[in-house]
Each structure stands twice: as C-alpha cells, then as structure tokens.
Design goal:
The complex is a heterodimer of chains A (282) and B (162). With 282 residues, chain A is of the alpha+beta class. Chain A has 7 helices and 11 strands. Chain A folds into 2 domains: 89 residues, Ubiquitin-like (UB roll); 140 residues, Alpha-Beta Plaits (2-Layer Sandwich), CATH 3.30.70.20. In chain A, the strands form 3 sheets. Chain A has a 5-stranded mixed sheet, sandwiched between helices. Chain A has a 4-stranded antiparallel sheet with strand order 8-9-10-11. Chain A is flat, with a radius of gyration of 24 Å. In chain A, 29% of the residues are buried. Chain B is an alpha+beta fold and 162 residues long. Chain B folds into 2 domains: 57 residues; 85 residues, Glutaredoxin (3-Layer(aba) Sandwich), CATH 3.40.30. The longest helix of chain B has 13 residues. Chain B is elongated. Classes of the chains: A alpha+beta (282), B alpha+beta (162). The interface between A and B is medium-sized, with 20 and 14 residues.
Chain lengths: 282, 162
C-alpha cells in the first residue's frame, strides 16, 4: 500500500483520534488534516484546497506544525494525512511568522483582490513590504494568486484541459493557449466557481456564455424544450450526456433539471394512478 | 514542418512519459521555433491538450513561439560577464541591430530584427568566464568583446552599417 492509497474508499477506515491545538478530534485514518480541522471548526486559512481534488499544497497558507511519533515538522495541512496520535498546532510562533510572510506576498501578488485583503486582515496583515516589480497585463485583473484550482478542476474533474499555466516565474499567468478562444472549453464555469479570489469573469447573455477571462470564448447555451429557459452550455450538455450510462431517456434529454423533475414526478403519479384504478383522473 | 516529418519524429519516441520534451526539442531545432500548426497537430496526434503543450513551450526558454532570425546572437549575462560589462555589450548590440528592448509579456528575452536576419537573446553563463564578456553567434564564441569590436564581428554575418 503506497502513501497515496491510505484512506481510500476501498480500504477499511479505522476511526482514530488526532489532536488539533490540543483538542481531541475524531478522524478517519488517512483523512486530510485540513478537512478534519474545518469540520471541527478550527479555522486554517487556505486558497488552493478543494476536497474533490488530489492534494496539491500550492498556496502554502495552511501551514501547520505537526508532531508525529515525537518528530515535529512544518507541513501543509491540505496534504497531511491523519494517523493515530498525530498532534497539529495551527498557531505556534513559527506558523504565525510563516503565514504572515505569505499573506504579505499574496498582497503584493494580487493587489486588487478584496478576498486576499480581507483574509490577510483577519490574521492581522494589512500591508506588504514586497513590491511586484513585473506588472504584466493580466486577463484576470490583478486578482489571480496562481493557486492552480481552476487549472486542476478543468483538467482533473471536467477533463477539458482548456486552461493551463503559461510562462514562468514572475511572468506566470493562467489562460488558454495563445490567449485565444479554444474548443476544449465546455463552458461549465467550474473555474470561476472554485476561484478563491473571484478573478475569473464569466457572463451569460443573449443565449450564450461568454468567458471574458479566457480569450472571450463563446459557448451557446441550450434552451429547455419545455419551459424555454436557457439552462446549460451546449458543449457541457453533450459532454455530460456522453458519459451517462444508461443514457438519459430521449424524451427527457432536452429538458432543464426542473422540468425533468416535474415530468418524472408527473409520469410516476400517472403510473401510480393507473395501478390504483383505471379511469381515475386528477 | 509537414505531417510526415512530425510522424517520423513521434515514431522515434515510444515511451509514453517524458517524450513531449524530446519531440518539442526536435521541432524547435529543425524549424527554429515551434509553429502553431505543428503544435496543434502534435496535440491531436498525442492526445495531449493544447493547453498543456503551450504551457510547456512557454515555460522553457529553449522554445520559441516566434520564428527566429538567420543568425542568433546570444549575450552572456552571467556574473563574470556582467561585471566585465555585458550590459553595455547588450545595449550596443540593440543599437547596432536597430532593436528596441520591448518589455516582453513572457519574460523571455528574444528579439528579432525586422528583416529577420538577426535574433538577439541573453543567456546565463556559457561556462567561458575566463574570456568574459562573451557573446555567442550561431554557436561560435567571441571572448573579450568590447562595444567597439562588435560591428566588426557582426559584419562577418552579413551586417552592414545602416
């Protein structure tokens, strides 16, 4: 069993106890410590963590001091897995020092992001001693902190891979290849949903979804064949319907979720009425 | 680069991991840059997203997305060359070649003259510090360079005073 497999669903999960800031917390063996802490109401700042994705450890904000079998080390809570007897501290002087520097760096990196300002202020950091020397024209309006969540969601979950990191070092940005509209994008908007700093601009207008941040990709929206409302991007509908097994019934395929639910309930009721007694109509 | 040549390059890399850079390197070497249509073709052939290929190509300074000139002049900006006046060499070359140092959006220093004859690049140490400051033209090293000597060197590559 490799490290990555610990605590996967197919493994028997042993309930264990870990200590977070001296508080006893129940956890499953191999569970991500950040997830345990959030469940227990222990606030740990984080930007790049998303439960449905593989651990990444990109933003470094969730740095904690962990003691396991007498050995203490600094590590990110989003990639640390729970083991019996693990002790975690989220506010030792070293963690605080580390975190404050990170907040200062983020304030310099994304000077226009209100989310970062608020988050940093909560931890007492209101100004930065760093200066961003290279200020590039940024399609994300100076709000991107390069946490990589949008890239990971687009690739790992949606399987689209429409966006990625471009360039290197202080010139790094996230965008589509050649900064142009591309056909890999499904228009799902997951990137904008996960973005911790709300940097990605997406707009639905006149029957199409426009992804302003990604080279102005335009994806036509699909209209519900029952109520006539636009409910999903066409490319996304096609991609989802291709993965459904068994496939969605052809008479329901063109319906929005609300109309589909209505139609299903309607069919259920009619079938039920039929078995109750022929000829009874509501 | 035509499809057949690309297929031939791909066929020489059978390992599924680590072949991307090898293939891209061969394209860069044979074309002098990574043409967009070749990158798009490669994406289809290998079933790798274009965004991933574009990410790789823009990460490494070895790759260029723009056609480079007939001759590539590389100025060493390493520590030894720097203290012996590499900055002055670079500004003189820019002046001689008629290149304006534009702020590039990708962080790579690579500028090509309008007539596509010269491309000016910078590097971090050729390992020839004993003859600093050094410039490299098409693989040939020129040591102990001075701004005064530059026109003479460039003339060997077809440069003429405007």
């Amino acid at each position: 069993m490799t490290y990555g497999e610990v605590g996967r669903r197919d493994q028997p999960e042993k309930p264990i106890t870990i200590l977070i800031n001296g508080k006893k917390c129940m956890a499953r063996e191999g569970e991500i410590v950040l997830s345990v802490a959030l469940r227990e109401g222990v606030a740990i700042p984080h930007l790049c963590y998303e439960a449905s994705l593989e651990p990444y450890g990109g933003c470094r904000l969730c740095m904690v001091e962990a003691t396991d079998h007498g050995r203490t080390s600094m590590t990110t809570a989003c990639s640390l897995r729970a083991t019996e007897g693990l002790e975690v501290c989220t506010d030792t002087p070293e963690v605080v020092k580390y975190r404050n520097v990170l907040f200062e760096l983020y304030l310099a990196e994304a000077p226009k992001s209100e989310t970062i300002k608020e988050m940093a202020a909560r931890y007492g950091v209101t100004k930065t001693s760093f200066l961003k020397k290279i200020d590039i024209e940024d399609a994300l309006g100076g709000k991107c902190v390069l946490c990589g969540l949008c890239v990971r969601v687009c690739t790992e979950i949606m399987g689209a891979g429409a966006i990625n990191f471009i360039n290197r070092g202080p010139y790094t940005v996230v965008n589509t290849p050649y900064f142009e509209a591309n056909t890999d994008c499904l228009g799902c908007g997951a990137c904008a949903n996960v973005c911790p700093t709300h940097a990605i601009q997406i707009e639905d207008r006149n029957g199409e979804r426009v992804l302003h941040s990604w080279g102005g990709i335009k994806i036509p929206l699909k209209r519900c064949s029952s109520c006539g409302k636009y409910y999903t991007p066409e490319a996304l509908a096609v991609s989802v319907q291709n993965t459904l097994m068994p496939p969605i019934r052809s008479d329901l395929a063109g319906f929005c979720p609300a109309c589909r639910a209505k139609k299903c309930a309607d069919m259920e009721i009619r079938a039920h009425m039929k078995t109750e007694g022929e000829g009874n109509h509501v | 680069m035509d499809e057949k040549t690309l297929d031939e390059i791909i066929s020489r890399y059978d390992s599924p991991s680590g072949r991307l850079l090898g293939i891209l390197e061969e394209i860069q070497t044979s074309e002098g840059y990574i043409p967009r249509d070749v990158l798009e073709m490669l994406s289809v052939k290998l079933d790798v997203r274009l965004s991933q290929l574009y990410s790789l190509v823009t990460f490494y300074s070895f790759f260029s997305l723009k056609p480079i000139g007939e001759h590539v002049v590389t100025v060493c900006m390493g520590t030894a060359c720097h203290v012996r006046g590499a900055a002055e060499i670079l500004t003189t070359l820019e002046k001689l070649l008629g290149i304006e140092r534009g702020t590039t959006q990708d962080g790579k220093y690579s500028v090509t003259t309008k007539d596509n004859k010269f491309t000016l690049e910078i590097a971090r140490c050729f390992g020839a510090c004993s003859i600093a400051p050094v410039i490299d033209i098409d693989g040939d090293l020129y040591g102990y360079t001075t701004p005064e000597r530059l026109p003479e060197i460039l003339e060997d590559y077809g440069w003429r005073e405007p």
